Amino acid sequence: MSAAKPVDISFEFFPPRNEGGEAGLHKTVESLRELRPDYCSVTYGAGGSTRDGTMKTVCKIQSIGVDTAAHLSMGDESKENIGSMLGEYSDAGVRRIVALRGDAASGMGGPSTQYAEQLVRFIRDHSGDHFHVTVAAYPETHPDAVSPEADMEFFKRKVEAGADAAITQYFYNPSAYYDFVERARAAGISVPIIPGIMPITNFQSLARFSERAGADVPRWLGKRLESMEDDAAGLQEFGLNVVSKLCEELIANGVPGLHFYTLNRAKATKAIVHNLGLRQPAA
Ligand code: FAD
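Above: the input record for the complex with flavin-adenine dinucleotide. Below: its predicted structure, written as tokens.
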């Protein structure tokens, strides 16, 4: 396989929960760094549960010379606290924020009433143009949305509040992405909409996570993966082919970039990028 043209690539991580996770993430970052990503990003736990871990991980990756985005949601934090986090990120040389509403942490009630739009607005009021701000987008419609039209309207509002780009929830049906981009352009939204890519390495966890996230695993794909549950190597090879083909098609259709949900592991993402011929490791 070969790429039609170069596209930006970015890698998403979550903050490690313990020392073992920290060592593992360090190895993953070192390995993926060879692919010269345009940037990496680090998630923010629901309700601010990873506030310190996210900050530490973002600043650590940024400090080794990899442009890194901090995911952030307001949750129940005061504006003062959010402002001081923005100040700390700015002092550490961070220039990118992924602004989200976030979901509820388990046992912590419903999701925040602070929509992403409010956070984007706050970031612009507080820090002007210092940060490149990215928001989330949902080609298959956000699970809480009353309709695709309402979801698009709210997407438009958060972009108009000052977002520079959007990254999508992952999908395995590219028609959902093309339809979403077409509707966004028709609604007057012109920012880049970067597909989120979820490598496939395990059926059960993908099915569970997709159910929660409102991401569709098409029947044919689910059935094939389910039938390979006892053949880890076969499933991974099949998953690699499916996701590589998806990315290849997206690139051929002119997507501005690919954002990989790495789940803190390098192997699958690296194999996909290699299949696409997107990046040769630095000499
Ligand atoms: P919003 O854009 O605020 O929208 C949330 C819902 O409310 C939508 O259904 C929307 O239609 C509706 N809505 C928006 N504005 C209004 C309004 N004014 N009135 C009524 N309804 C409204 N989660 C994490 O916890 N941490 C992360 O780090 C994280 N990173 C992510 C990265 C990406 C690229 C993506 C796609 C998702 C990520 N998520 C993360 C998941 C995300 O937090 C959830 O999907 C969350 O439920 C919605 O967040 P949002 O920013 O898209 O919300």
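Notes for the reader.
Strands lie at 8-13, 39-42, 68-73, 96-100, 132-137, 165-170, 193-197, 257-261.
The chain has a mean pLDDT of 94.
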